[in-house]
Design brief:
The complex is a heterodimer of chains A (328) and B (447). Chain A is an alpha+beta fold and 328 residues long. Chain A has helices at 7-19, 98-101, 103-111, 118-126, 175-181, 204-213, 219-223, 232-235, 281-300, 310-314, 321-326; strands spanning 2-6, 23-31, 34-39, 66-75, 78-83, 91-96, 127-132, 158-164, 167-172, 186-188, 243-249, 253-260. Chain A has eleven helices and twelve strands. Chain B has helices at 20-29, 51-59, 80-98, 115-132, 145-150, 175-191, 234-237, 248-259, 281-284, 316-319, 323-335, 342-345, 371-384, 394-398, 406-420; strands at 11-16, 38-43, 64-69, 105-109, 196-200, 205-208, 242-246, 269-273, 296-298. In chain B, α9 (281-284) links the parallel β8 and β9 (296-298). The chains are: A alpha+beta (328), B alpha/beta (447). At the A-B interface, β2, β3, α8, β11 and β12 of A face β6, α7, α12 and α14 of B.
Chain lengths: 328, 447
């Protein structure tokens, strides 16, 4: 026995969530040729076909690009701290790709290691992830090389799998997923076939071993010359999580906020003295691969990459984890 | 007690120390009364008034802004006001494209002897602003009825279409031109006259240093990147004398970079490729299919240049909107900006070693990807390219959020052409637009 839902019914369910006041986000065509995960104002904005992976990742719904931590107000000699409004209300991420969903349990480690990040954890608790298994992949996809696949269940609360003719098989994977979709699905005999996904391109352990051994290898400068040092890879990556903390305001009041940051920027490691331990782009590219395949696994036991391929898709000069790693 | 207090406009005036400030002083000493709504900020010269200040004034709650300095010919520093005038002409066009309300931005020349003119100007601006009411449209998405009906608003989504993998032209490849390119590069590298060829490879830019590797070079319809961006990069410069592959559009960047003393044309070998278009928006109206200044040109392009008017056609939908509609459009677009700075990094004209957004003592541009921070960034980016942008559209191609940044560049290119008959990178003899001025620059918007 399996459970199914039609696309029509699914849109009906999404409409109901929106009406209930839930924040619903999913793939949405923001302009011709550009699908992004974005908040949905109505269910017909939800795009379920015709794209491989949105150009961004779902991380911005649990770890926003800009988040206020607290505010301050100065009156005379008195400094008053102001609590910010905590995230409240449930959130549903609908039709997220399995590679995006898998990033959440991976990120949980770093946000709960030496310090338990309240805002992250609160958003995570309030979020239910309904993934849509992949029926197609492109040249940038490499989930199978990092232990995932087109229907990998990690991080998903429920999963939709295309059956064709506008029907989806529904797999409820957690209590949260069950609670969300309970009573919305129909019993059926139909079971979706899962696409094999992209061919396996590399062994993640070997990559980790290489970067550990080849810190000063000429490989880095020769393979990363084209990198221009923007943050498109890091900012569209579901697992990159670096942030910077800034104070914004004036002499009377302001906020302390955290913003995304990227190891590809020259400013990222610039010391106050003017010294920069990562003085050029090759050393910054090495850092990105090193962190994903060596440092993170050593510390938290798993690699910091889900093979979504967004780094490759969004790189203006055709680089990305896949191209660097396969060139090793 | 229940009566609502009458709206009192806040007006910020940026004035020149030598003329308008003294004019305002004269108004005071001669006991001329004028509304207390104006907050005067004194600066050394109108030529030193950073356009960001106008934006900042609105951000902190100004309802109108006045910028005022010496009459033409009277500048204490000879020509500061002429430079300012030229910048204002361009800046006004950018503000208009972004949807700022130009009714709230005033430019005047008021001399040290014109206390009366100061009084009259402040009175008038205060009254006009009082009628307009508080400035509420700044960075607002709401109130954009006309945007939705234009069909371009994000809330009116078109049905899904397959994702365009990569904009491609109608011609698949040019094997003869590609072979000619490889032969040339093989020869150049073998004879040692260049040490590296900056060209296109299968995946993206490649840097070929050995004659036997020239097979890595390709020439087809997805050679999109503007490779001139690499000429300023330390890592590439370290490789030695370069040969660089350029299309006609990329080549314009070389002209500007040389004019700005950033490159020495003699220190490189330029390989021009005749281009039949890469399938991008810029290609539709391209008129530089053939490189004009390259050391060697390969291939032929039989395309006819587009009419001048055609170049601005993608701006039409935006200019048809009301100012509030335009601002709503940009607010929606910038909402998606994550500040990855891909637009800056791919731009051959963004060669500053330290960008203004990276200056944090004090912070000039808020680093946060909020409405305020994003508007501030995109205004700076676009205006620093005024009269310099060559229209390669790399910023737009690189943007992972799909923001049509080219529209901002296009509006400034349009202004440069309409007001000054200037196109960046077209004529190597032309003086840089922003560095120069003319006594004839129009000033019908200055009182």
């Amino acid at each position: 026995m399996s459970a199914t839902i039609s696309q029509r019914a699914l849109r009906g369910v999404v409409t109901e969530w929106i009406r209930q006041g839930k924040r619903v986000a999913g793939p949405r065509q923001v302009k011709p040729g550009c699908v992004l995960y974005a908040p949905l104002e109505s269910s017909d904005q939800l795009v379920l076909e015709g794209f491989v992976h949105p150009a961004n990742s779902v991380k911005e719904f649990i770890f926003p690009k800009h988040e206020e931590l607290y505010g301050y107000r100065i009156t005379g000699n008195r400094i008053e701290l102001i609590e910010v409004k905590q995230p409240a209300g449930e959130q549903v991420l609908i039709a997220a790709r399995p590679c995006d969903a898998a990033s959440m349990p991976i990120l949980d480690h770093v946000f709960n290691w030496d310090y338990k990040d309240e805002l992250y954890n609160l958003r995570r608790q309030l979020t239910t992830v309904v993934t849509l298994a992949c029926a197609a992949h492109d040249d940038a996809c490499f989930c199978t090389s990092v232990g995932l696949g087109p229907a990998a269940e990690r991080g998903s609360d429920a999963m939709l799998l295309e059956l064709g003719d506008g029907e989806y098989e529904v797999r409820c994977l957690t209590e949260k997923g069950k609670a969300l979709l309970d009573g919305k699905v129909q019993a059926s005999e139909r079971v979706a076939s899962v696409s094999p996904g992209p061919e396996k391109r590399f062994e993640a352990e070997q990559v980790g071993a290489f970067v550990k051994e080849h810190f000063d290898s000429p490989f880095w400068p020769s393979e990363t010359l084209a990198c221009l040092g923007c943050g498109a890879c890091a900012y569209t990556c579901p697992t990159c999580h670096c942030f910077d903390i800034v104070d914004e305001g004036n002499i009377e009041s302001g906020v302390r906020a955290r913003n995304w940051d990227s190891c590809q920027f020259a400013m990222f490691t610039l010391h106050a003295s003017g010294h920069n331990p990562r003085p050029d782009q090759p050393s910054r590219q090495r850092q990105r691969i090193d962190h994903k395949f060596h440092v993170y696994p050593e510390k938290f036991g798993e690699i910091l990459c889900t093979g979504c391929g967004n780094c490759t898709r969004n790189c203006p000069v055709g680089m990305g984890v896949l191209s660097v790693v396969t060139a090793l | 007690m229940s009566e609502r207090p009458e709206f009192e406009p806040k007006i910020v005036a940026f004035v020149c120390n030598w003329c308008t400030y003294l004019g305002a002083d004269l108004a005071g000493t001669t006991r001329l009364e004028y509304p207390a709504n104006v907050r005067i900020i004194r600066l050394p010269c109108t030529g030193r008034i950073d356009f960001n200040l106008i934006i900042k004034a609105f951000e902190i709650g100004a309802d109108s802004v006045l910028v005022s300095g010496c009459h033409p010919g009277d500048c204490h520093y000879t020509s500061g006001n002429y430079h300012a005038r030229r910048r204002w002409i361009l800046f006004r066009e950018l503000l208009q494209t972004l949807g700022f309300d130009l009714e709230r931005i005033y430019f005047t020349w008021i001399s040290a002897a014109e206390g009366h003119k100061w009084q009259q100007t402040v009175k008038e601006i205060t009254e006009k602003t009082r009628k307009l009411g508080p400035y509420k449209d700044l960075y607002q998405i709401s109130g954009s009825g006309d945007l939705a009906s234009s069909g371009r608003g994000a809330s009116r989504c078109a049905p899904a279409v397959p994702v365009e993998v990569c904009g491609r032209g109608t011609w698949p490849c040019a094997p003869t031109d590609e072979a000619a390119l490889r032969d040339t590069c093989r020869r150049l590298l073998a004879e040692g006259s260049v040490k590296v060829v900056i060209g296109y490879g299968r995946r993206g830019p490649v840097f070929v240093t050995r004659p036997e590797d020239v097979e890595q070079l390709i020439w087809d319809n997805h050679c999109l990147a503007n490779l001139t961006v690499y000429l300023k990069r330390k890592e590439i410069r370290g490789l030695g004398r370069p040969a660089i592959v350029v299309k006609g559009c990329d080549e314009r960047a070389l002209v500007v970079l040389e004019k700005e003393s950033q490159i020495d044309r003699k220190e490189m070998h330029v390989l021009g490729m005749a281009c039949k278009g890469m399938g991008k928006a810029k290609c539709e109206t391209c008129d530089v299919h053939m490189p004009r200044f390259a050391d060697e040109v390969m291939g032929e392009a039989d395309k006819h240049p587009a009419e001048t008017g055609e170049r601005w056609k993608s701006l039409a939908f935006l200019l048809a909107l009301s100012p509030a509609g335009r601002m709503a459009y940009w607010a929606r677009e910038f909402e998606r900006c994550v500040k990855c700075y891909a637009c800056r990094q791919v731009c051959p004209m963004c060669y500053c070693e330290r960008c203004l957004v990276e200056k944090n003592r004090p912070t000039e541009i808020e680093p946060s990807a909020t409405a305020k921070g994003n508007f501030a960034w995109h205004i700076v980016r676009a205006f620093h390219l005024a009269g310099r942008c060559v229209g390669c559209d790399e910023c737009t191609r690189a943007c992972p959020a799909g923001i049509d940044l080219r529209l901002l560049n296009l509006s400034l290119a349009k202004a440069a052409e309409e007001h000054f008959a200037y196109r960046a990178g077209m004529d190597p003899k032309a003086e840089p637009l922003i560095g120069a001025y003319s006594l004839q620059d129009k000033e019908n918007f200055i009182r």
